[in-house]
Amino acid sequence: MVRHRARAADALTAVAAGLDNGVIRPVVGDEMPLREAAAAHRKILEPGTRGKLILTTD
Question: Are 43 and 53 in contact (CB under 8 A)?
Answer without folding.
Answer: yes
